[in-house]
Amino acid sequence: MRVLVVEDDPTIARLHRGFVESHPRFVVVGEARTAAEALRAFAVLDPDVVLLDIYLPDATGLHVLRQIRRRPSPPVDVVATTAARELESVRQAMAGGVQHYLVKPFTAAALRGRLDEVARLRDSLRTAGDELDQDAVDRLVRRGTPDTGALPKGLSERSLRLVVEALAAACADAGDASAGEVAARTGMSRVSARRYLEHLVATGRADVAPRYGAAGRPENGYRPA
User: Is 80 a member of any domain?
Assistant: First the structure.
């Protein structure tokens, strides 16, 4: 599959190109440093996947995303690869149709996992019939995402999505966020936020490690896997 890398920092762009091309099913067909370059490259190269930074020198990646979605082109998968951690940026990106949101810095394994999900869903759509019943639609939607199993009693999909967004937005440069920090962003209690975070850890969608606060009391720090 053909990938366009939109990233204003040449060093990071080279790094992400290497991440992509370590996957046997993906190849980088172009790079863009600005929003204007990205839209020109998108029109000419017709990529299957766009790795999209949110912070660009001439316009935001959200502007690029909106323009891409307005064009009558074949479906394209957009993966946000950005340092933008603000909850509003995450929400706007998801509402605009990004398939995945990776907060920098991330590992080659993290990007590979998202590319695997893109490939898995495209393969499923390619073999699906022209008309689908509800069961078939549900299977396709599940196939494009990791199998996390049923939610434990007391947890809801809506609140889980909110915690996922908040975790991505709350991760500071140090690389993690506590249950209290996620709770503050979502409006839920610390205990509830911790339950959702532990579910993400148990299903492979988040990592956890102990960290120590100013008073020396240990607490867990979480970050997207």
Answer: yes
| Prediction pTM value | 0.62
In this structure, what CATH number is given to the domain that contains residue 24? 3.40.50.2300
Domain that holds residue 69: 2-126
Helix-then-strand count for the chain, H and E: 9, 7
Q: Are 48 and 56 in contact (CB under 8 A)?
A: no
Residue 146 has pLDDT above 80, yes or no: no
What are the DSSP calls for 108-126, one per residue? HHHHHHHHHHHHHHHHHHH
What letter would DSSP give residue 225? -
For residue range 168-184, what is the model confidence (pLDDT) as tens digits? 888 765 578 899 999 99
Q: Choose among 69, 60, 134: nearest CA to 95.
A: 69
The answer to whether 81 and 51 have CB atoms below 8 angstroms apart is yes
Same domain, 56 and 161: no
Q: Do residues 121 and 22 both lie within one domain?
A: yes
CA–CA separation, 5 and 31 (whole Å): 5
Q: Is the pLDDT of residue 216 over 70?
A: no
End-to-end CA gap in the chain: 24
Beta-ladder partners of 211: 219
Question: pLDDT per residue over 12-44, tens digit each?
Answer: 999 999 999 999 999 999 999 999 999 999 999
The per-residue pLDDT for range 78-133, each reduced to its tens digit, is 999 988 777 788 888 888 889 888 888 888 888 888 898 888 888 877 766 666 66
User: How many domains are contained in the chain?
Assistant: 2
